[in-house]
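Consider a concrete sample entry:
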Amino acid sequence: MAKFATRYVAAPVVLLLGARVIWGLEAGRRLDRVYGELRAAGVPLETKNFLEPVLPDQSNALVPVLHAIGALELTEAERGLVSGEGKSLSMPYETEYTAGEEAQLDGIFARMGPAFGDLDRAMAVPEAQWGPGLKSAAGGSGGMDEGVLSSPEVYEEVRFLAHATVLAARRAHERGDDSACLHGLEQSLALARITDANPTLYGHETAIGIRTETALGVQQFLGDLRIDGADRAAAERLVEAFGDDRSVQQSEVRAFQFELAYHRDTLPTEAPLSSSWLLKPLVDTTVARLLEMDASLLPAAAAPIYDAHLLPKLGPTPPGALSDMVLPPLNGVMETFERAMILQSRHLADGRATAVLLAARMFEEERHRQAQGVSELRGYLGSAPRDPFAKDGSALRYRLDADGPTVWSVGEDGVDNHGHLARSAGRVRIRYSQRDLVYGAAWMDAMKAGSEEARGAAGHGGAAAKGVSGGAVTRQPSR
């Protein structure tokens, strides 16, 4: 009996324990090697490395922003009206309101005056002093580690404020107050910079959304925007903010680094069986593979262009239950980070095109003619903004159409289709389904043509889709 137990029970147990010890040593050595390589490369490995010293309230722009959020005493119906809920178009620069709703908006914005004043105080703080650590408006000590700006609820309030400032800019533009229009757009961009104070990927994507909404809003107002006197300085600041986006690129790299540190800090404790001695090597292996994947994405995040070839390639998934537990997180990380890079590159195209179009508008105001090419705009732009999707590093494309400049990017496929647009492109919301990302006169023409075609189809039972390239749009002055 003892011999049987030794042969068929004790021996297998010893072999399994031996295999587990060897597996654990190998997994531990791999994890230590990954840690060593990342430290040698200067990559932050702990989330606490991203915490900055607490700044005094008078030096921290987050403080007045939290005050502004605290002043948003709006009903749900008022919030819905500002957000455009229930409207066919919910962007602040294109939502259609009735005369009664516009009167309501005027009253809402009058009540939000103190909040907008807080944003002005935030804008007055030097950019270098926009830091995460602060004492919150409620009086308690705060900081990124306490979730002051990490809370999704706070991000939603920041996003709402940014949306409101663009809508207020549109309302000012309709009244003929172009100075207030430009100021509202500056406030929205200031809120985008605020969210960059937190290096999380969620915060970075929130900032990208705010910047994109603001950029496309600027383009909607350009047609009859007067830029002179003090407005010229505000327009120059917007051109600089949209054209010089090094801080945006740095924010993405920092966000990716934070995700790496987050995986390193949390995965071992969040895995349900991480405390199990038997399965700890599996956790170590998963952490090591995730960190290797995160680190391999950093060069692509730092690259000046989006190129899918820069992304690391995952090999075929090997069969087995253990690999099923390790590889799904890797695929999820890849998809999340690639989506973030695409969103960023789209925004860079939006922002840089906005800088070109705004510079062209300033040129037209001062020279009383349209710029024939980007070379004529150098005094306003400094240099021709690069196309974030052009693998050869070339600039955004520019041409002068019948009613103004058209600017375009080659888009995600990297192929120049000469700003060609499918007729179904009519709405801003599906700009990114086009092969080229087109801005300016051709895009406005496509929107107008698409709307007219939709109305015609509703009245005559439909119409065939067509292509449109170039063209003009009739600008209707708001005053």
User: Anything to note?
Assistant: Confidence is low (pLDDT under 50) at residues 134-147, 462-479. The chain is about 60% helix and 5% strand.
